[in-house]
Design brief:
By secondary structure, the chain is an all-alpha fold. The chain is built from six helices and no strands.
Amino acid sequence: MNNIDISWIGLIFGLMTLIIPILILQKYKTGLVKDTIISFGRMALQLVFVGFYLKYIFKFNSVWLNLLWVALMIIIASASVSKRSNLRLKYMILPIIISILSNVLFNGAVFALMLDGFDNLLNARYLIPI
């Protein structure tokens, strides 16, 4: 697999794109500047930790490990959706999981058609990004 490393200069330029929405939020006094910066910091930290973990998922490339990782992502996303929409997790977790799972299955099927079929779909490099 070919990896493309991002230079520190490239990373800084990428981070500078955050300045535009922050300036817009500040100009219109939305009160979202602090939340935006905190969300960005949290996202960056999560990506660092997930990046370390994904290194091993891609290395082992086990179908069961890949499916377990996708299931974990679906459950976490479902809990996040429930929490952000102020829905009761107890009642809504199953419908939300089914909704997200159906989306993953549909996108996986479409993606498999664009590839060379379903043979490679459970490969970590294809399944995890979907």
